[in-house]
Amino acid sequence: MFYETPHRDKTRLPHDPFKAIVAPRPIGWISTRALDGRINLAPYSFFNGFCSAPPIVGFSSEGWKDSATFARESGEFVANLATRDLRDPMNATSAPLPRGANEFDHAGLTMAECRLVAAPRVAESPASLECKVVEIVEIRTRSGSWSGSVLTIGEVVAFHIDEAYVREGRFDTAGAHPLARCGYQDYAAVESLFALARPKGGGDI
Ligand SMILES: Cc1cc2nc3c(=O)[nH]c(=O)nc-3n(C[C@H](O)[C@H](O)[C@H](O)COP(=O)(O)O)c2cc1C
User: Phi and psi for 106 in degrees, rounded to 5?
Assistant: First the structure.
């Protein structure tokens, strides 16, 4: 099968496969605090890390949703790790609540204080990254017009890691069962890992 993007045969592929192909995507569970104190929490699967020294992550909002709006005005956000055991509260925080309604309360989650940013983190999450916004990109299409999406990029200035997930000096990813978004309504959770050494001289990345 081949098609140019605007010409998908909707009789054969009624559902856009894009998000099922760019998958699995890690979920940035983004908490923010507006300057007036309103708290927000929502999942973003257009999320990833983009470099490691310094560590930098970003999430893309399809439109100026609250997370991007609050991150822009405060210059801060927190990326919490969404896990298999937290899938229901994670999903609950994606509900379209009125602006400023606290998704922590809505989903039965606990706010824990951060140290370097004013936004709270998700106490139940095994890991949270405190981030300071370094760049906001209004993503353009090839014609130069705004796509409607906003990529908020932040430098990770502090880490919170639940000690229960530190094993032999490493973060226990398989034990935390991070959740990832696939296409449609599908998710994946990390259940096991395998190691593969880089070719000689290839470095760490
Ligand atoms: C697993 C998951 C991943 C999501 N990823 C995105 C995303 O990458 N970009 C986006 O704009 N919305 C995404 N959404 C939808 C937002 O979470 C939803 O619109 C939410 O209400 C936005 O909240 P906010 O306005 O409080 O930021 C996702 C929802 C779920 C359940």
Answer: -60, -40
H or E segment at 88? Answer: helix 87-92
Pocket test residue of 19, 29, 44 for ligand 1, highest count of atoms within 8 A of CB: 44
* Cβ(94) – ligand 1 distance below 6 Å: yes
Tell whether ligand 1 has an atom less than 6 A from the beta carbon of residue 66.
yes
In terms of Cα–Cα distance, which of 85, 89, 49, 92 is closest to 191? Answer: 85
Q: Is 43 in the pocket of ligand 1 (CB under 6 A)?
A: yes
Domains of the chain in sequence order = 24-189 (2.30.110.10)
**Phi, psi (deg, nearest 5) at residue 182:** -110, -155
In this structure, the residue with its CA closest to atom 20 of ligand 1 is 94
pLDDT in tens, 87-146: 999 999 999 888 778 999 999 999 999 999 999 999 999 999 999 999 999 999 999 999
- Give the chain's radius of gyration (CA, Å): 18
CB-CB contact of 154 with 134 (8 Å): yes
Reported pTM? 0.97
Q: How far apart are CA 187 and CA 97, in angstroms?
A: 23
